[in-house]
Structures are given as structure tokens and as C-alpha cells.
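During the reporting period the student researcher (J.K.) took over the structure-prediction task from the postdoctoral fellow and processed the backlog of single-chain submissions. One of the processed entries is reproduced below for the supervisory committee.
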Amino acid sequence: IHIICMLFGWLFFFPIGIIIASCFKNYFNADGQWFKYHKICNSIGIFCIFVGVSTSIASVGEEDHFNTPHKILGMIVFIFTLCQPINAYIRPSHEKKSKGRWIWEFVHKSIGRSTFLLAIINCILGVIVVRSNYFSNPLIIIIIIILFIISMVILFIYYKMYGPSNGKNNTSKSSSVAIVVEMQTAIPVQE
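J.K. obtained the following C-alpha cells:
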């Protein structure tokens, strides 16, 4: 359960939440929709991480807690992960661009990105633990994590260069995202 929860949290829900906040503000700007999707994805991610950490702690004896780099870094990442919703709760109003809001955004983004990077490193450490304890060759897991990291970097670079915000506040659309948005508006909603 630990591995499945961590993979879903760190390799699915959190990346989607981060990408929505980083790249799709212009597409979900009506009534703060991007923020709602960001919050939903990250809330599900936090739930997955909480379940994953809880099952991990419950499954080992007391003397085996926090005795490996994977477990120690995992607890650090878990604490930083829990800090983000607390940080979000105390955020200053976005209506006025104050120095406090700028500092809050810097701290929130820095902690979030650092936590995500540390979590990916810890996933790699987890693969080493799985390999040493359960499998002789978890090459497929290592390949999946490397491909995920590469795809996230490429996606991030693409959207920073060509995506909705293009590093600025313009509303140009990339073709793939524009197609999805157009499909959403073309599908009639039955009430």
C-alpha cells in the first residue's frame, strides 16, 4: 500500500496540481477554477501521502523507524508536505499585490518545488530499498521514474516557452491544450 500511495501521490496528483498552478492559470481563470483544481489534486495527493506514510510506520517495528536515508528523508518530505496546506491557509489576499503576498508566494512555491524534488529523490531511494529487500532487479521501476522525470521537465520547459503564460500574462494557447479546451466547450452539458 505504501508504494502505491506514494507513486499516485508523487507521480500523479502532485505533478498535475503543480502543472495546473504553473501553466494553466489562463485556461481556468474563470472564478478561480485553476485554484480549485490545484487544491483538489494536491488534497488527494496529501491524502495518498498520509495513507502511505501511516501504513509504512505501522508495518515496521519500533526499532526500525527512521534508520535509513529513505525513511529519514521520507519523514522530512512528509513534514514539508503537511506545511503546504497550513501555508495556504494563512496566505494573504490575492486581490492586492502586497509585499506580504509576494513573500508568501515565494515561500509557498519554494517549499512546494523543493518538497517535490526531495520526494522524487526519495522515490529513487525507495526503489533501492525495494530492490535490496524484494527484487533482484527493479529496472522497470527505475525506468518509469526516469521517464516520468524527463517528461515532467520537457512539459515544464515546453509550457514555459510556448504555453498559456509564455512566462508572461498573455492568453495565447498551445495547440494541444486549445483542443482540449475547445472540446470542453463543445460538449453540451445536461442539467
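The committee noted the following: The radius of gyration is 19 Å.
J.K. will present the remaining backlog at the next meeting.
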